[in-house]
Structure formats: structure tokens, C-alpha cells
Design a protein that fits this description.
The chain is of the alpha/beta class and 517 residues long. Among the domains are: 77-200, Rossmann fold (3-Layer(aba) Sandwich), CATH 3.40.50; 312-431, no CATH class; 441-509. Helix content is 32%, strand content 26%. It has helices at 34-49, 65-72, 100-105, 129-141, 159-171, 188-200, 202-218, 237-242, 250-263, 337-340, 351-357, 374-395, 433-440, 458-475, and strands spanning 2-7, 11-18, 21-29, 58-62, 79-86, 109-114, 146-151, 176-179, 224-228, 233-236, 268-273, 278-284, 287-288, 295-297, 300-302, 310-312, 318-321, 327-332, 402-407, 421-425, 442-452, 484-492, 500-509. The strands form five sheets. A nine-stranded mixed β-sheet has the order 3-2-1-4-9-10-21-23-22, with helices on both faces. Strands 11, 12, 13, 16, 19 and 20 form a six-stranded mixed β-sheet that branches.
């Protein structure tokens, strides 16, 4: 038996699953103290499913804590951005394109040190160890407890980053060090940005993971727990403490994985309508399609793996206004929906009220929206439909109609058909697809590097890449004998001198679960 939990901005969802069968589920408003909401959801599914805490073998949790921290510019550590690049790459300093308030939130501490490699791994400049030790003394004096190390072309060879991390650890005992080569891809500034964001979240990551452990302990659940990554896989909680940035966009990813299981459709567009926003993505062979371009997080460009998602301000709590013309969202009552929506005795007209007035949903007290003008209700439903259809059209890569799967608590807002959909699927348990996606996820690892074929055969290089991806999957919690390679991309670098190729490999495996305690 396993439990999946998804902590959203409006609701916290939990499901109890026996293999791939949903035994029980519960949806509760997200509380300001997020852990108490998790405790409530867990207690309910255990009681409903008649399951003792000792029967649980694993708990999988998806969270928005870290995304929210960056967006809201709060609970971020002062971080030393150490770039190994001199004498080159100094025209654009670290965090040069960041919003000023976010740059200030992480302290704007930048250190440029000699080092780096060429695209083919040849040394660009030897690592300036003495300069790095001088920088470390300044970092220590400033009381900075986290650092992000980025070296030129470190995805090709991470040797200098690893050595720099060792020196920082020697000079500043207890410092958290994030190496960009373990997170981002080719592209210095974007990879550096991702590393700095990750480093700034390390303290929060420990706090959040510990709060999750405390919630499990309070209920007597002794099973290991895992945290959702944004590629549809899981990582061990200890891994999440080191790489919190890999949770970004894990909510929509969980929903898409859950949608694939519930519907039995592995290639489709998924529309996840929550309480505040709707996320629209594409399933390819049961996994989310990844974004092929840089992705902005909190207005910062990054280039680590992220699902290709279109988000719109439409959810079950979206505020509907009729003064000066009809508008829907993008603002929402969020987790206050049970208090503020008309059908619950509140004073705010929401999309949920519109759905109830139209007879599409049976929640709250329908008599409280009986006074709504029929033309307003009809116009609001048409507006909601148009918002969803536009988002589906934006995410598609062709004009052909495709299957569309609707999940999330806000599926009540959409009618029986959508323009551009060859079929519209609303599976059972759609409202908790996100928690189901967390519960069924596997552990995964990925490698994205440039390899030189000079002196090595193509197969030998591919084997090396597969082995590294497999090792990362095992580090994330996969059972070694279950790991399989699910994706291999090989891109020759035609305009570079030499015989070089960029290889991306993704590996996934079943969780290595011990007996419940």
C-alpha cells in the first residue's frame, strides 16, 4: 500500500493505492501551515481505506513550496555565486538578468575565478585555487552558508566544479554547495541561474522535508517517503534536500502521469484545472513532453529539464466579474473557496458558482445562485470554454484534433466537448489525478552532456551516458535491477570543430521499497 499526496495552492489531495488501484482519496483545503493540511488528508485516507499506518510501504509527496518561495521572493538563503570562467566570460556577471528584488533576496554575491573548459573538454584556463580560497575567506566572513559553483562547459566535464566544491567545503565547514553540472544543461548563464536558485533553497528544503517527516511521524507512518520531480519521476527525500529545484512544476507533471493511468491514453493533451490555475501539457508515451527551450522561473531564465506547460488563470476559485463587461480571473479566492463562493454562503461570484447555476455541478447550496442572470451564466461558460480551447490550441504542434484528458477538481467547468479535441476524456478519480500521479511515479535520472567521439567509439560513449543516467536514477531511489533506459537523444554538433555529439539519456526504475516499519 502506498500514499500519494499533492500540495497545491488551493487544495491538498491524498490517495491510498494498492498497486494501481485507488482504495481511498481525500481532498482538503491547503492550510497556511501546510503540514497540518497533509496530516488531515493522510488521516482521512487511512481511515476511509481501513488501512493501518504500518501497512504503508511508501509515501510520495508533490509540493509547490519551492516554486512559491522563488515567485514570492521569500525564505531564500544568501548565496555565493562562484563562476569558474576567467579570463573569459566576465562581461555578463552572475544574475545579470535577474529582477532586482530577487537578486537582492539571494544577496547578489558574485565571485569570478579562473577556470573552465572548452566545448570538447580541453582546459580553457586552470582552476585558480588560490583565488578560490581567497573568495572562500570572504564568503565565510560574510556568514554565507550556501554556494553555487558554475564552470564553463561543465556538462562536458565537471572535474573543476567538483574540485571547487571540495575547496569550499574545506575552507567553510558546513557550507551547502550546488554544482551546476548536476542540474542544468549546456548554456552558461541559464545553467548558472538554475544552480543559484537551487542553492538559495537548500535551507528551506531541509525545513520542508523535515516538516513532511514530522507529519508522517505524527500519524505513526514509518515508511520512507519520496518527493515528486518535474519529469514525472520521484527522488528520495534526502535527494530532495539537495536538489529542491527539481520539484518545480511537479504538480502539473503528477497530474499528467495520473491522467495517463486513469484514462489509459498515453499520447494526448492533458488539461489540469485546479482551484487557482489550469495547466495544459502533452503526454508522449505516458510521460510529459519536455520544453525544448529555456524556461523562466520567477522571471529568471533556466535550462534544466521542465515539462512543456501552458498555464492560464482559470480554476474553480477564479473570480467572475460582471461590472464593465464579463471577466473571468485570473485572480482567485484560492483555498478560501469554501468560505467565499456564493454556493457556500460567501459573497464572491466564482466559476464554481457559475457551474452550479448551470447544473454542471452539485456542490454547496444551489439555491444561493438561483438569482444569477441566465445570460450571465451562459456567457461565463462560453468564456471558460474559450480559455481552455485557446490553451489546448497553443500547446498542440499541429492543427489536427487530438485526445484531450480533463483532470483536476475544476473539470466541472468544462462542457461535453472542446474544439480541437478528437475525444474528451473525464476519467474516474480525475479530481485527484495529481496525487495518483505522485503515488505511481518511478525514480529517475537524466544525463545531458557533450561527448567527444575522438578516440572513442559511438557505442562506448552511449554506454557511458547510459551508465551515468542509471547511476543517477539509483541515487534518486530506484532499485538497481529495475532501471531501464526510456529515452536517448543524440545530437551531432555539426558546426563545431572536432567530432563531438550532445547526448541526453533518461533512465527510470521502480522504487527500492523496504518493509514498512
Amino acid at each position: 500500500m502506498r500514499i500519494g499526496v499533492d500540495v497545491g495552492g488551493t487544495n491538498t489531495d491524498a490517495v491510498l493505492m494498492d498497486d494501481m488501484r485507488v482504495v481511498a482519496w481525500h481532498k482538503t483545503p491547503t492550510t497556511q501551515n501546510v503540514s497540518s493540511g497533509i496530516e488531515t488528508a493522510l488521516a482521512e485516507v487511512l481511515a476511509t481505506g481501513g488501512c493501518a499506518p504500518g501497512e504503508i510501504t511508501a509515501v510520495m509527496i508533490g509540493t509547490t513550496h519551492f516554486t512559491n518561495a522563488v515567485v514570492e521572493r521569500r525564505r531564500l538563503l544568501d548565496t555565493a555565486a562562484v563562476r569558474l570562467a576567467l579570463p573569459a566570460n566576465q562581461a555578463l556577471p552572475p544574475m545579470v538578468d535577474w529582477p532586482s528584488e530577487l537578486r537582492d533576496a539571494v544577496g547578489n554575491h558574485a565571485y569570478l575565478i579562473p577556470g573552465g573548459n572548452e566545448f570538447n573538454g580541453r582546459v580553457l584556463s586552470p582552476l585558480g585555487e588560490s583565488e578560490l580560497r581567497t573568495a572562500a575567506a570572504d564568503i565565510r566572513e560574510r556568514g554565507i552558508r550556501s554556494a553555487a559553483v558554475t564552470s564553463v562547459f561543465s556538462p562536458v566535464t565537471a572535474e573543476m566544479e567538483r574540485r571547487a566544491g571540495e575547496i569550499l567545503a574545506e575552507e567553510i565547514p558546513g557550507i551547502d554547495v550546488t554544482l551546476s553540472s548536476e542540474i542544468g544543461r549546456i548554456g552558461l548563464l541559464e545553467r548558472e541561474n538554475a544552480a543559484i536558485l537551487n542553492a538559495s533553497l537548500r535551507d528551506l528544503a531541509r525545513s520542508v522535508v523535515q516538516s513532511f517527516r514530522s507529519a508522517l511521524d505524527a500519524l505513526g507512518i514509518g515508511a520512507l517517503f519520496y518527493v515528486s520531480q518535474n519529469d514525472g519521476t520521484l527522488m528520495a527525500s534526502e535527494f530532495a534536500e539537495a536538489y529542491p529545484i527539481l520539484t518545480f512544476a511537479s504538480g502539473p507533471t503528477n497530474s499528467m502521469r495520473g491522467a495517463a493511468l486513469l484514462s489509459g491514453v498515453r499520447d494526448a493533451v492533458v488539461v489540469d484545472i485546479g482551484g487557482t490555475t489550469s495547466d495544459v501539457g502533452v503526454l508522449v508515451n505516458g510521460f510529459p513532453r519536455e520544453a525544448s527551450t529555456e524556461v523562466q522561473i520567477g522571471e529568471v531564465r533556466t535550462n534544466f529539464r521542465m515539462p512543456d506547460i501552458v498555464s492560464i488563470g482559470l480554476g474553480g476559485g477564479s473570480i467572475v466579474r460582471t461590472d464593465g463587461g464579463l471577466t473571468i480571473g485570473p485572480d482567485s479566492v484560492g483555498y478560501e473557496l469554501p468560505q467565499r463562493a456564493l454556493v457556500f454562503g460567501g459573497d464572491t461570484l466564482t466559476t464554481t458558482d457559475v457551474a452550479v447555476a448551470a447544473g454542471l455541478a452539485d456542490v454547496g447550496d444551489a439555491s444561493l445562485v438561483a438569482h444569477l442572470d441566465g445570460d450571465v451564466v451562459k456567457a461565463a461558460l462560453a468564456g471558460i470554454q474559450e480559455l481552455v480551447e485557446r490553451a489546448v490550441d497553443r500547446i498542440k504542434t499541429s492543427a489536427d484534433s487530438v485526445p484531450v484528458i480533463l483532470v483536476g477538481g475544476g473539470t466541472i467547468l468544462v462542457g461535453a466537448s472542446l474544439a480541437g479535441a478528437s475525444e474528451l476524456v473525464k476519467p474516474d478519480h480525475a479530481s485527484v489525478a495529481n496525487a495518483i500521479g505522485a503515488a505511481i511515479a518511478q525514480a529517475g535520472g537524466e544525463i545531458d552532456r557533450v561527448f567527444s567521439l575522438d578516440g572513442s567509439s559511438r557505442e562506448a560513449v552511449l554506454d557511458e551516458a547510459r551508465a551515468e543516467a542509471t547511476a543517477r536514477a539509483v541515487a534518486a531511489g530506484a532499485a538497481p535491477d529495475s532501471v531501464e533506459i526510456v529515452e536517448v537523444d543524440e545530437i551531432p554538433l555539426a558546426y563545431m570543430p572536432g567530432n563531438d555529439v550532445r547526448i541526453r539519456v533518461k533512465a527510470v526504475g521502480d522504487l527500492q521499497l523496504g518493509a514498512p516499519v
